Amino acid sequence: MTSKILVTLANNHFGTLAINSLLKKVPSNNIIGTVRDLSKGAKLKEKGIEIRVGDYTKSETLKEAFKGVKKLLFISSILNEKYPRQSQHKNVIDAAKSCGVEFIVYTSFIHCDENKSALSLDHKYTEKLIKESGIKYTICRNNWYFENDLLIWKKCGLEGKKLYNPLGKQKIGYALRREYAEAAAQAAAQALIINNPKPIYELAGKPVTFEEVGEALKKISKKDFEIVNVSKEEFAQKLKEDGYPAEFIGMWSFMINDYINGCLNFGSNDFSEILGRNPTSLESSLEEILKE
Prior knowledge:
By secondary structure, this protein is of the alpha/beta class. It has helices at about 15-20, 40-45, 60-65, 85-100, 120-135, 150-155, 175-195, 210-220, 230-240, 245-260, 270-275, 280-290, and strands spanning about 5, 30-35, 50-55, 70-75, 105-110, 135-140, 165, 170, 200-205, 210, 225-230. Strands 3-2-1-4-5-6-9 form a seven-stranded parallel β-sheet, sandwiched between helices. The model has no long low-confidence stretch (mean pLDDT about 95).
């Protein structure tokens, strides 16, 4: 196995998890990681991984980083008001084309081609660029992370506070961040040995309601808190009253209509296919992240 895999955003949470998973599948000298600042890659370098500078907002750094690279695990950037995600992602695809990258694994958003969520727009745009590039690809369309709502689970499962439910019976296909990262790593590893891997994986855990999450939290924490149905306006107010960080409240304010309208209510058999096992169960997932 001589071909190397380059992992972008190698030092962020998802990138680190993906690399840790890749290290179980390929030798460290077959992995390259990009970071915005070389000092951020010290821990990865200690694992034997080559570190290069690659900044999505600076196309010249990407072209330098991608030299000689044939396989690319392209981790989507976070939302950034100063640097639109679409322009960042275009820089990545343009650099990949100019450097002769032959295969891209991209972390996208669940059913982004038909999803009504505002989050799907940047991913739909990026997928179009990839498909038009002529580069072979596997797209991992990820649903929501359990960790995105960790602060809520901790309030209930660790402190026994009320769980306010603004979603009624609407469901979310949560799964663990590390398992989405493992799926991306598996897709990248497959690209080394399979000529035509599956082009799209729709990845999601078993959809659950807030009430089902609450009952699971009660069971594992042995705390008997109340689950209270509230409107989305009341929910925002409760978050403020309970002292949640402004960033978290902002995320929920941005996502609440998507939650309510079922934009995350997707399950998937693809997860079991690419992992070779079922995703971690609801209770076990909550037990794991409550230890963080």
